[in-house]
Fold:
Amino acid sequence: MAKRTTLAQEMEFPPATEQPNVFPLSWRKGTEKMEEVWASSRREVWDPAALSWDTFDVESYTWEEREAIAYWWTLLSVFDASAPPVFASALIKTYEVHEEDAVRRCFFSVTQDEQNHEQMCGMAITKLLGYDDPVTYEPKTELGELAQRNVKWLYFNGGRYWDGYKQAVPKYPLAVLFSSFLMGEIAAATIFHQMAEGAREPVFEEAFRNIGRDEGRHMAICMALMERDYPKLDVSDRSLITKQIRAGYLFLSAVLYEPPEDFWDLPSDFIEVQRRCEAVARDAGFHIPEYDAKKENWRQAILNLKTVLDKYDIPFPAIPEVGISGEEVNDVDLEDIIPVF
Ligand SMILES: [Fe+2]
Ligand SMILES: [Fe+2]
Structure:
């Protein structure tokens, strides 16, 4: 068999690699803020398995309390368990578009953090239920039964955005993709700090303190990206961002406030069941902010984002649910959901 002629036999240097290719071979410096956030992400790495689990006596809780607290962790995991693949794809995109070195590292750190949050949810649920899967778990109480039906509906709804997300990632710039992310991070950082302050169990207090600190860094990454890219934004991207914010509101409300009917397809007694679980969890020392506190927290986060967008003349969507007026956005569909926090 004749030997194949290789390019290297014919030329001294290889042809230029078509750009952009999957990864840069450069470590371009740029946004100083990203370096700072990356450095703190290294200092603040934590391990869910290393928290003080030995102080947590699950037997001291009734089955109803265990199921109610597990319900809240499961609600959180509907969001946090989808975050690792969401950020892993975004991380790949930072390489494909040859982002600054520090931006690539920051997206790597968010992927790692979200993986940690997901692990934490899994460990809490497994310990509370004595079983590692809240969907196939056999409930022990009547409230546990109802909570599980809620969980099944949350899981069904939470899985619906993935195809839309995968299509959106190659199409839009990072700063557009993650425009609603900031609002989620702001609200999440606040809610987790409140939950840490009110938690009776040291292991939950530690977890919420760590998760809240992580979300604060994610918020800073998102802000730095917006400040860098929004001044040079395409006009066509502006209306997309407005829609994106409304979509983010609808999606994230389920965990940061209460799920709106516009997006969430849920049984009519869903909220009632969730409120019952929350009341039982609160009485057992697992602090969950009350309805009004959640609403105010969510409203503040949205107003913070509005202040940022106003600076760049990006129209803000109307969010009448929390008393914010703006541009009417009615046609939110699954393609517009970027479900992260
Ligand atoms: Fe998270
Ligand atoms: Fe986050």
Q: What stands out?
A: The mean pLDDT is 91.
